[in-house]
Amino acid sequence: MKRATKFTHMGRPKAGLGTAVNPSVTRASTLLFERAEDLYRSDVRGYGRHGADVHDKLAEMFTELEGGAGSVLFPSGLAACTYPILACVKAGDHVLLTDSAYGPTRKFCEGYLTKMGVETELYDPRIGANITTLIRPNTAVILLESPGSLTLEIQDVPAIVDAAKAHNVITIIDNTWSGGLVYQPLQMGVDISCHAATKYFGGHSDVMFGAAIARTKSLHSKISTTAKLFGNASSPDDAYQILRGFRTVMPRFTQQSETALALATWLTDHPKVQTVLHPALPSHPDHTLWQRDFCGSACLFSIVTKDMPSDDVLAFVNALKLFGIGYSYGGFESLVIHCDPQLKRAHKTTLSGPLIRFACGLEHADDLKDDIEQAFNAIS
Ligand SMILES: Cc1ncc(COP(=O)(O)O)c(C=O)c1O
Questions:
Q1: Ligand 1: which of 74, 76, 78, 329 to mutate, judged by most atoms within 8 Å of the beta carbon?
Q2: At 134, which CATH number?
């Protein structure tokens, strides 16, 4: 069965006499037991913090999404990135983090992990097999993100995984960009794949959620135990919203990706644009890796403008009418942000000038093009 069919039919109650199509949502802190003997059973859910049926169903869908051994759910995408790291490190360890990583994950590593006595070293996202030279006896984890959040470098994940495996190092990837729909890193040997489900699975910019999918049962149990120790819990209402988003994620993702590629292609020849960063474009430096490892692209891409001072870049962003200025992506509406492509990077990019990141929504591509054109015209 294809995944589109599975996502339509998984997590639903069996039809009976007038059964609802969707699972019901139970809100609970206390769960009651008829017999005192059952209170401490390990095979029965004992307390609301440990989830509800809707969480179990949703976790199964995430496991199916990437072909993992199990998933752990979190109340945000950031938590889905940080808890798996916490589960895999101890004081004295060394962590390798791609320099293209999502900013708050980096802040967590440089802040909290440092406080725990875990050292974080940033590596060039395009390092590939040379990562071997950075692996130390105390390296516990390599953190990947492909493509990078803003600068969209594609990593040579199989080469990094080979090096990691040779040294018994765990690999964790932030797979938010692809939604697991066009990229399957667990199938390439990555150990844990993390998602900000807030994006495509929420799909409507009104819920925050995350999931970490483990390749093996023992890693799943490691993440789950750590998450329980820290009191991780997500609302059943939010879990339901994400499960609901799963039903329609594939057509939404496909349409938004097509729009993004159409805009990126058009902008390649635009006189105001110096560089378009979209891995499905042949001009992208990692296009060959993308072709080898991915089976599609997503709604997010960036540009660097030509001969435009920073004030004009701000004026351009302010002049856009259909792109809301705000973080995130994968919702039904288009968004835009601007940033310095060097950020706080240890390995500087060759990109000049401010970078503008577009997240395409479900508006018609022609209207989004017109909006970008009128915003460029507004500043000339
Ligand atoms: C690549 C990536 N990872 C993780 C996150 C964090 O997700 P959330 O906003 O749900 O905490 C984001 C959010 O923008 C993201 O873009």
A1: 78
A2: 3.40.640.10
Please give the distance, rounded to the nearest whole angstrom, from the Cα atom of residue 378 to the centre of ligand 1: 32
Q: Which residues line ligand 1 (CB under 6 A)?
A: 76-78, 81, 102, 149, 174, 176, 196, 198, 208, 210, 327-328
Instruction: Note whether 281 and 238 are same-domain residues.
Output: no
User: How far, in Å, from the CA of 80 to the mean position of ligand 1?
Assistant: 9
Domain limits for position 49: 3-244
pLDDT value of residue 347: 87
CA 82 to ligand 1 centroid distance, Å:
11
Position in ligand 1 atom list of the atom nearest CA 327: 14
Q: What angle do CA 206, 211, 217 make, to 5 degrees?
A: 165
**Structure tokens that stand for 263 in this block:** 């805009």
CB atoms within 10 A of CB 100: 28
Residues classed as catalytic: 49, 102, 174, 199
What is the average pLDDT value for the chain, to the nearest integer?
96
User: Which of the listed residues 211, 244, 277 is the one where a domain comes to its end?
Assistant: 244
What is the C-alpha to C-alpha distance for residues 208 and 75, in angstroms, rounded to an integer?
6
Q: Mind listing the pLDDT tens digit for each residue in 339-349?
A: 886 767 888 88
Domain of 313, CATH number, reads 3.90.1150.10
What are the DSSP calls for 223-253, one per residue? HHHHHHHTT----HHHHHHHHHHHHHHHHHH
Of 218, 244, 270, the residue that ends a domain is 244
- Encode pLDDT of 68-108 as tens digits: 999 999 999 999 999 999 999 999 999 999 999 999 999 99
